[in-house]
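re: that complex we talked abt at group meeting.

here r the seqs, copy pasted straight from the sheet so there may be weird spacing, ignore it
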Amino acid sequence: MNASKGILGTGIEEGLLLKPVTYPWAMELYDQAVANTWFPNEVQLGEDLADFERMSEDERHALTFLMSYFNPNELLVNKALAFGVYPYVNAAECHLYLAKQMWEEANHCMSFEYVLETFPIDREAAYASHVEVPSMAAKEAFEIRFIKRMTEQTLDITTVEGKRDFVRNLIAYNVILEGIWFYSGFMLALSFRQRNLLRNFGSLIEWIVRDESLHLKFGLNLILTVLDENPDVATEDFAAEIKQMILDAVEMEEAYNRDLLPNGILGLNADYINQYVRYLADRRLDELGFGPHYGVANPAKWMATANDTLQLVNFFESINTSYEVNAKQ
Amino acid sequence: MSCIGFLTPQQRAALRASSQDGTPLSRFASPPATASKSDRLRRLAQSPVAAIRESAALAVRVPEDVLVALAADPDEGVRWCVARNRRTPVTILVELAGDRSARVRAWVAANPATPVEVRDRLADDPDDTVRAIAAWAADRPATVEAP
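got the structure back, here u go
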């Protein structure tokens, strides 16, 4: 590959040679993704049925509710990657990572299938448990708009606006959906740990979160590389637009959490989760070079009493922070 | 979110019907825990990249000798991955309860496999976070074993 062409490009003749590696961060992420490889049947989810039988109605409802946080239709996510990201990237090492990421999304699909086939959860009820709520409909409309564009429209990435659309798509799908919105669900999932329930399910969630943290890292590096290589794209107006997308997404998530969790669920209330959402948004903004906007402390950093979130925080920080430390060395 | 709003009425009907379909898709075997898989994890554990050694420390089928070696890793991130792993033998958790890093000790306190007496000692740890996690772990409901 001719490195001077940059990371964006199309055409079957491009990105066919792995050496020399132009973007070592992509190769490092591929190596780590391969090292992290796991399979859902490595946990015996059936062992968690003993817990399910003794769970309260609230806890069972939370599990059903939780299944709709994540996109069980991982094939839709795979389509977004296949049609909306992969065709526009020019580097072989990036294609290697994207191929692994698409396999991981398939693995997540089969993991959710494993959960739905093991626990007595109504599939359609799980998927649709709160989609009629207006704040949820707003979130879905936002994501569907970008995912449809990624899968149904062809970008002209030789133009400035085409490159900006590519970055907008990544912000919506990778930074907002995978980098902020998903974590409300992960927080709820890991709260089962507090009750020492569903340990095997918890292992699946941990592994999925670990994969997602690398997906996020790849997407952020891809965005930053595109902006770095294309200074005509990274204008002040475009930067302001991207930042506003993220702030709008935080508002949507906060409204959603207030609607769905007026009385809390499994000990987590909307205010607590929303502060964590703002903390995460600040991290994403910082990683994109904007600096924090909300300036909130991580509410889960210091655990006072019976609360699982310190483990949550340490888990995320041990994934994100340790990798960031390594990347800076 | 599920993006179920994306589905057509026909697809939703098919989704509804699939709930009653008893044929499981997920009953496939994971690759067996072969000797070559263990050897691969041993090689990952020797990587110069700490993030790769962390993956080895967290692996489901990591051999005990790998955990013993990684419990002495110079990188605290690797050691706390050993402390986090629920399959880490008790002898290693006891050793890591005395680690120089408070984060490693915190993960030992949080690990459900850590013996009560070790967790109780961590309740007197000089670090605030370790003490808080030990207190949280002490209140955690007992495990119910599957019949």
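couple things i noticed - Chain A touches chain B through 68 residues (CB under 8 Å). The radius of gyration of chain A is 20 Å.
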